[in-house]
Design goal:
Bound molecules: manganese (II) ion
Distance between the termini: 36 Å
Largest sheet: 3 strands, antiparallel
Number of strands: 3
Number of helices: 9
Shape: globular
Length: 218
Amino acid sequence: MSSHAQTHTDEENSGGESRFSLHPLPWEQAALDPVISARTIGYHHGKHHRGYVEKLNKLVANTPMQELSLEQLIRHSAEDPQLLAVYHNAAQVWNHDFYWHSLSPQGGGNPPQRLAQLAEQSFGSVEKLRKELATAATGLFGTGWAWLVQDGEELKTIATDDADNPIVLGLRPLLTIDVWEHAYYLDYQNERGRHVDAVLDRLIDWNFAEQNLSADFS
Ligand code: MN
C-alpha cells in the first residue's frame, strides 16, 4: 500500500463511522460531588475514557475486529501479544463503562438482601467484604482496578493491574473501583485510601452489583 493510500484511509477512519462510542455518564457530571468532584469526572470521562474509545476505534478500523462486541474483542485480544494495545484500550473502555455504573449519588449503605447473604457466606459479613474491597483498592501497587467478582457461587475481591479485566480470568465482575491516579488525584492527591473509603461509604452501588449476579458478559 502506498503511503498516500494509507493517509487517505486514516482520514476516512477519523470521519463519522466509529465502531465503539463514548457512552454518556449515568448521572450528571456534578452528581458525585463532593466525594468525586465534577472537575475530576469531567477529565476522567471527557479526556481519559474518551481517549481510550478514540484509540480503540483507530486500532480496529478496517479490520475484522470491527465485527466483534467489546467483550469478544477483549477476549480475542487478550490471547494475542500482538494485540496488546487493542486489549489495553478495549478493556479500559469496558472497565470505565462498568465503573460509572458502579457509582451512584444514592450509593453506599448496605447491599440488598441477596448480595448481603452471599457476602456473609463468602466473607463472614458485609463489613468484611467492605474491608477486603478497600484493601484490594489501597494495596494495589501502581495503576489498576479493585473488583468485587463472582467465582462460581463464591464472591471474591481482586485487584487487577493497569487495564486488566476479570472477564479474561473467567470471573464475573460485579462492581469495580478505578484506582488509577486520574480517578482521584485532583480531589485527594496522594490519599488513595481516603478516596476509597469515601467511595465505599457514599457512592458504591450495591444494587448494580446485585443485578450483575445474573449478568452474562460473554
Ligand atoms: Mn480511569
